Amino acid sequence: MSDNKKMTGDQEEILAAEGAVTADTDQGEDTEEAVVDLHVKFRKPYRFEGQDYDGVDLTGLEDLTAGALENVSRALLKKRPGLNPSTIEMTMEYANLLASRVAGKPLEFFERLPAKEAMKIKTTVVGFLYGGDGED
C-alpha cells in the first residue's frame, strides 16, 4: 500500500505546510457517539495503482488541529487564488486534500474516485468539520 504515495510538488508543499498529521488514531474511543462515520465504504471496489480498495479510513480527521486546517486553506488559496476563503472548506479540493492527509494516500487517489464515491468523501469531511460529535 505504501508504494502508491507519489506526490507532486504542490502536494508536498501543502503537506509540509500542514505539519505531521497521520492516520494513526485511537479508533476505539467514542466511535458510537460520533455523528459522522469516518470509515467510508465504497459501493464497489475501487482500483488505484493496481490495488483494490473497498473504502477509506478518515478517522485521522479527529486528530487535525486548527493550524492544520488554516495551513491547508492557505496552500489551496495560493494554488487557486479565486476561491472564496470563507467557504473554502466546502470545496471538493479542500475535502480531497484533507482526506489525502489523514488517510495517508496520494491526492490522485481521491481525485480519480468515481463521482459518487468522491461525494461520499466530501460529505464525510464537511460533515465532520461542521457536524461536531455531539459534545459540548
In short:
This protein is an alpha+beta fold and 136 residues long. The chain has helices at residues 9-18, 66-79, 92-103, 107-111, 115-131, and strands at 39-48, 51-57. Helix 2 (66-79) packs across helix 3 and helix 3 (92-103) packs across helix 5 (115-131).
What does it look like?
The chain has 136 residues and is of the alpha+beta class. It has one domain. 43% of the residues lie in helices and 12% in strands. The chain contains 5 helices and 2 strands; from the N terminus they run αββαααα. The protein has a two-stranded antiparallel sheet with strand order 1-2. Strand 1 and strand 2 form a beta hairpin. Helix 1 runs antiparallel to helix 2, helix 2 packs across helix 3 and helix 3 packs across helix 5. The longest helix has 17 residues. The protein is globular, with a radius of gyration of 14 Å. The chain starts with 8 loop residues before the first helix and ends in a 5-residue tail after the last helix.
Order of helices and strands: HEEHHHH
Global mean pLDDT: 79
- Which regions are unreliable across 5 or more consecutive residues at pLDDT < 50? 1-7, 14-35
- Total domain count: 1
How are the strands ordered across the major sheet? Answer: 1-2
Globular, elongated, flat, extended or rod-shaped: what is the shape? globular
Count every helix, treating DSSP H or I runs of 4 or more residues as helices: 5
Largest sheet: 2 strands, antiparallel
Distance between the termini: 38 Å
What class, by secondary structure content?
alpha+beta
SS strand fraction: 5-15%
Q: How many β strands by DSSP?
A: 2
Oligomer: single chain
